[in-house]
């Protein structure tokens, strides 16, 4: 797989016209008149997000973390997840991660270690998520938003990973984060060395588009 | 974590009115007038998908798989992914998985092993994805849709997992699938025993909502 930009990796779509069809404080939906990769006319409905999703896995010195349970309105289902929230585009992601961790758990963290970037639903949306592991934790008071009715679950990271593996957790950001931590854990021993976590490289393209 | 339905897991949102604001062959967008969990009025924009996403990781007897590279229009970025496609709601997911595998790679598979269910972006969408491992592979001719300009990459599953870990792959469905395979692989030896894979339990709620 070539890492560089080669001819086949250039955009094969042509955008002819763009119309805004819906907007609220969180998303906007545009319908694009396009020529598809075969050169034929068509439409593409694109959902753009006004926030970057940040995910945070706080891990204390004993290996314990918090999961958050909440009812997910679009899915009509209760969902157990890592700490997640929105960071307005342009705000450094670390500020958003600190705020969401504090709001949902009351925790502050001495260290945020980059874990991964992911794209949740790239056939229709531009939603980008960046996930951190937070260590060096100190407890304060949680202040969830009123749209959030959250239940905190204090559990060992191994238990959270087991719920990711056995299908209890289905949220994509949470699944990817917990399974990647499982992988790091197996490769690097546990508890993780913060210096090791700090050395996880972040692809340059995401650092440029969504700076920490 | 309670697995049963208890009071705190019931829906704390009240829907007062629903208005369709956009629809195309793939998605519809509705704006709901709601009372949020604190009982205050607000709006919720929900993006509903007309297909269930299916993901397929074909693995041959030597441990080789295929990744697909394509330009993702909403994201304005080239993306390397597992085989993915859409299965119209109501169609058994295995039929959709067989069709997408054949279209994108020309492969047919003797066995489809359930790997995971996930929700790609549950703050705004109801998109559901189900991923399979396909084994017992036989090569035919690929027939991609004209909206797809795909590049196939034939590589060992260990290489694909490495790309999931090092940030080359950012697509959520692909990341979760490859990291879960890494986890199975470490627990169960390699190549995987098809009988073992067949025993991966699927949570009943997803089997009821999205039957295989």
Summing up helix and strand content along with how strands pair, one would put the structural category of chain A as alpha+beta
Helical coverage of chain A, percent range: 10-25%
Number of helices of chain A: 5
Mean pLDDT of chain A: 90
The number of distinct β-strands of chain A equals 10
Return the string of H and E elements of chain A. Answer: EEEEEEEHEEEHHHH
Report on this model:
2 copies of one chain form a homodimer. Chain A has 212 residues and is of the alpha+beta class. The first copy, chain A, is built from 5 helices and 10 strands, in the order βββββββαβββαααα. In chain A, strand 5 (64-72) and strand 6 (77-81) form a beta hairpin. Chain A has a 4-stranded mixed β-sheet, sandwiched between helices. At the A-B interface, strand 2, strand 3, strand 5, strand 6 and strand 8 of A face strand 2, strand 3, strand 5, strand 6 and strand 8 of B.
Compact overview of the structure:
The structure is a homodimer of 212-residue chains. The first copy, chain A, has 212 residues and is an alpha+beta fold.
Write the topology of this structure:
Two copies of one chain form a homodimer.
Chain A: E1 14-23, E2 27-35, E3 41-49, E4 51-58, E5 64-72, E6 77-81, E7 83-88, H1 93-105, E8 107-119, E9 128-139, E10 151-156, H2 157-165, H3 172-188, H4 194-198, H5 204-209
Parallel strand pairs in A: 4-9
Antiparallel strand pairs in A: 1-2, 2-3, 4-7, 5-6, 5-10, 8-9
Helix pairs in contact in A: 2-3
């Amino acid at each position: 797989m070539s890492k560089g930009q080669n001819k086949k990796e250039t955009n094969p779509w042509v955008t002819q016209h763009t119309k805004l069809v819906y907007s609220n404080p969180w998303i906007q939906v545009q319908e694009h008149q396009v020529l598809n990769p075969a050169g034929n006319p068509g439409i593409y409905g694109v959902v753009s997000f006004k926030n970057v999703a940040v995910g945070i896995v706080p891990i204390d010195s004993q290996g314990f973390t918090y999961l958050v349970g909440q009812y997910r309105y679009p899915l009509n289902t209760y969902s157990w997840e890592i700490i997640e929230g929105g960071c307005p585009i342009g705000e450094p992601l670390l500020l958003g991660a600190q705020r969401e961790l504090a709001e949902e758990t009351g925790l502050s963290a001495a260290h945020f270690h980059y874990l991964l970037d992911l794209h949740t639903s790239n056939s229709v949306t531009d939603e980008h998520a960046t996930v951190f592991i937070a260590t060096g934790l100190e407890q304060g008071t949680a202040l969830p938003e009123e749209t959030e009715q959250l239940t905190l679950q204090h559990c060992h990271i191994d238990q959270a990973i087991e719920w990711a593996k056995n299908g209890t957790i289905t949220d994509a950001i949470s699944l990817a984060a917990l399974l990647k931590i499982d992988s790091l854990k197996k490769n690097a021993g546990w508890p993780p060395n913060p210096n090791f976590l700090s050395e996880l490289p972040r692809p340059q393209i995401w650092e440029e588009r969504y700076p920490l």
